[in-house]
Amino acid sequence: MKDPSRSSTSPSIINEDVIINGHSHEDDNPFAEYMWMENEEEFNRQATLMKSFLLFVQIEEELWEEEFIERCFQEMLEEEEEHEWFIPARDLPQTMDQIQDQFNDLVISDSSSLEDLVVKSNLNPNAKEFVPGVKY
């Protein structure tokens, strides 16, 4: 059996459209693959416009996001105003007399109930004092 790659007869090339080095013989301009460079300034201008457009889109998205966050905060504030939330300026007493009146209301008037609490307590009076951050 003969090896076809070692054949002594080579095929005759009749087709004139043979491509050598990426160019066919019919190409009039051997630099056709470099013709895009002719419009390099236009390409660069379009690339700059595209970069500007993408930057504009990014900035627009950031503005939309900021507006969305602002609306969320505004809705949150409106929701707080609708409900009865603790508002220090409104709910805290402004004068010392008002503070003293509230303090007087907190004083335990019956000392016998205090002694009952101490007697019934489950706390260990001999326990070490708790100090935050110290490990025992």
From TrEMBL:
<dbReference type="GO" id="GO:0045947">
    <property type="term" value="P:negative regulation of translational initiation"/>
</dbReference>
<dbReference type="GO" id="GO:0005737">
    <property type="term" value="C:cytoplasm"/>
</dbReference>
<dbReference type="GO" id="GO:0000900">
    <property type="term" value="F:mRNA regulatory element binding translation repressor activity"/>
</dbReference>
<dbReference type="Pfam" id="PF07145">
    <property type="entry name" value="PAM2"/>
</dbReference>
<keyword id="KW-0963">Cytoplasm</keyword>
<protein>
    <recommendedName>
        <fullName>Polyadenylate-binding protein-interacting protein 2</fullName>
    </recommendedName>
</protein>
<comment type="function">
    <text>Acts as a repressor in the regulation of translation initiation of poly(A)-containing mRNAs. Its inhibitory activity on translation is mediated via its action on PABPC1. Displaces the interaction of PABPC1 with poly(A) RNA and competes with PAIP1 for binding to PABPC1. Its association with PABPC1 results in disruption of the cytoplasmic poly(A) RNP structure organization.</text>
</comment>
<dbReference type="InterPro" id="IPR009818">
    <property type="entry name" value="PAM2_motif"/>
</dbReference>
<keyword id="KW-0810">Translation regulation</keyword>
<dbReference type="InterPro" id="IPR040396">
    <property type="entry name" value="PAIP2-like"/>
</dbReference>
<keyword id="KW-0832">Ubl conjugation</keyword>
<comment type="similarity">
    <text>Belongs to the PAIP2 family.</text>
</comment>
